[in-house]
Amino acid sequence: MNTVHLSTFLSSIKSISGQYSLPIAPEYTMDSYHKWKFYPFYSDEGFQLDCENVTDFVMMACNTFVKHPNDTFVEIGSSDNDVLLNSMRQLIQHMTDRGHEVAAFRTLLYYFHMKSRISASASDIKEVYSAVFEKFYFLTYTMVQKVLSQRRVDLNFAYGLLSALPENSQFGPLKCLIKWCSSNLNRLAAVARIGIEVAKYFQKSDALSMYENIYKKASLLSRSNVRSVPMEIILHSSSHESSWPVVKDLILTQEMDLPTVYECCSAFQLPTNNVLTTYLNHILLESEKKFLNNDSTDMEVMHILEQAAAVINCIKDEELLCNNLKSLMKKVIL
């Protein structure tokens, strides 16, 4: 097989496929570089796409590149165009014969991404390659869906796929992905994490705030194994009245610690003192039940009281704290 420029394909992957860690949360980060360094020769790892669609798209992109050599492969002379196209065709055939159609798509995707960024602005690319981008957009969205559906999510790879699109085309797939995975909190958190990085890159403060809010809520609820929260509370900035029952239920039903309580306050934008007071009441009432039922030792009771003391020290509203303790005292007397 003629492998003209194949080394360029492989070397171009290095800077965008994860050797240098993207600012993605540690629980999602994987060493993508070593995994994908020679991925044109790997078997498909579950990212199933329709073979004909991928192959047709690859060929269409190749033909488009050759028609506009000055806008894409700036370092390749006209005399090399046929060599490049033939090499690409052989590469595609080589992979198709071995069931590696998706790997062929990845290779072209990354190479196209790198060269198009160098050669022209995003708006120019969209005008010149409108047919390519129409297919590119759909297959990118489909590929990201497949990545997010895997048991181990390679978030760097998903982010790299979306970043291949022009700026005005990246937020569209993100919105569609949010709707697609709204019933799966783990996937929702992953999409929101990608959205955070995209918004940071383009310095979109409103989008950054929105995706950070979604990520905080989705990741917190996912870790707490909560499934019954209305999606509008997660996806939108909700009122205290609608958010409070969710947080209160978390406090009363989950084994929460103080940092997680603060995380609840931040995620659902609730007053810290009020949430801490509810958490304090829960600790004291639960300890009372255990003490009266002889379900805990003296050491365990002391530990619970120390925990309550730590919460009291965190409540900054003295009037709220005093009124709350008075209310608890009345319940004890009764």
Automatic annotation (TrEMBL):
One of its GO terms (cellular component) is RZZ complex. Coiled coil: none annotated. GO terms for molecular function: small GTPase binding. Residues 140-332 form the KNTC1 third ARM-repeats domain. GO terms for biological process: mitotic sister chromatid segregation; mitotic spindle assembly checkpoint signaling; protein localization to kinetochore involved in kinetochore assembly. InterPro entries: ARM_KNTC1_3rd, KNTC1. Pfam families: ARM_KNTC1_3rd. It comes from the Eukaryota. This is KNTC1 third ARM-repeats domain-containing protein. It comes from Araneus ventricosus.
